[in-house]
Design goal:
It is a single chain. The chain is of the alpha+beta class. 49% of the residues lie in helices and 14% in strands. A hairpin with a 2-residue loop joins strand 5 and strand 6. Helix 3 runs antiparallel to helix 4 (169-216), helix 4 crosses helix 6 (234-245) and helix 8 (272-278) crosses helix 9. Mean pLDDT is 84; it is low at 1-22.
């Protein structure tokens, strides 16, 4: 990995910004190791770089600075806030201050890594670039035009970072802030666009699932069967339903079944067994157990309370 990550481990080794015992360790941005001691670093990722012994790649740790990795090879698996992400060549990972992450022992990291200390950019720029939008996705997939623009901005930023002879330090830092802002504005636009596209996909997935459940809950209580019929993986369905409702697909199905059972118990004279059959339980005993599990009352008791 790039030297920034290596040196972040050294900051923790001195006890600065680290937790005690088995706590997740926090590693600070190594300002003293940046060119000109500015609040950012940029350089290559690669297998020729190693981490400090106190911060091995596979150990979960927290950082108090921004990390943006642009990959030129892949796939790379990386954990951020206990969720696993798989990045391919041309993808970016954006890790924000306070997030925990862990590198994969099996993955080779190749590309460019940018690190930035909080406070390096003015407040107006921070707000414009959404630096602390933790709701935005950390894994980004730019299209070819977006990727070319990001590469160009990042290359320009790296050239400015490495050029310490042309300008006095104060102007050098000012130019870096401008170049960094240009890159981050493009990155923020990509992140926001990705979040909106993801939301639309999630909404569409949930809507199709909801409609399918409405049509089939009386006979189909299987999450896998709905996923197969709709052409989604079970994991995709779980994510979409949880994002839209806060519950699992199974919970959503069960809630719809219970609602229909309550309606039939309240507004018809069907026997308990016939109500069970109407919502997908041929066996009356199984229906009664299911109903009591979800409502705390037997079907008979529920009906009696309403009459």
């Amino acid at each position: 990995m790039v030297d920034t990550t290596v040196q972040a481990g050294r900051g923790g080794a001195d006890g600065e910004g680290t937790g005690g015992g088995d706590a997740i360790r926090t590693f600070p941005f190594p300002t003293e190791l940046a060119v000109g001691r500015v609040g950012m670093q940029i350089g290559p990722m690669g297998t020729d770089r190693t981490w400090h012994a106190d911060a091995p790649l596979e150990r979960v740790h927290r950082i108090d600075f921004h990390v943006v990795m642009l990959f030129t090879d892949g796939p790379v698996r990386h954990m951020i806030d206990f969720a696993e992400y798989e990045a391919a060549a041309g993808d970016l990972l954006w890790i924000r201050p306070g997030q925990v992450h862990r590198f994969s022992r099996e993955s080779g990291y190749h590309g460019t890594v940018l690190t930035m200390q909080p406070g390096f950019l003015p407040r107006a720029t921070v707000e414009a670039t959404g630096l602390y939008r933790y709701d935005l996705p950390p894994l980004l997939h730019p299209d070819p035009a977006q990727l070319a623009a990001l590469h160009s901005a990042l290359d320009q930023l790296q050239r400015e970072y490495e050029d310490t002879a042309t300008l006095p330090l104060s102007l050098h830092t000012a130019v870096l802030r401008h170049a960094l802002t240009a890159f981050l504005l493009r990155l923020a636009h990509l992140a926001a666009s990705s979040a909106e596209a993801s939301r639309q996909r999630t909404d569409s997935t949930f809507t199709r699932f909801r409609d399918a459940v409405e049509q089939g809950f009386a006979t189909n209580h299987s999450v896998s069967a709905y996923a197969d019929a709709l052409g989604y993986s079970r994991r995709t369905l779980v994510r979409a339903v949880r994002a839209a409702t806060g519950e699992t697909p199974k919970g959503f199905i069960d809630k719809r079944v219970i609602l229909e059972a309550k309606r039939l118990l309240a507004h018809t004279d069907l026997t308990i067994g016939r109500v069970g059959v109407a919502v997908g339980f041929p066996d009356a005993a199984n229906f009664s157990k299911f109903f009591q599990l979800h409502t705390g009352r037997t079907p008979v008791a529920f009906r009696a309370e309403l009459r």
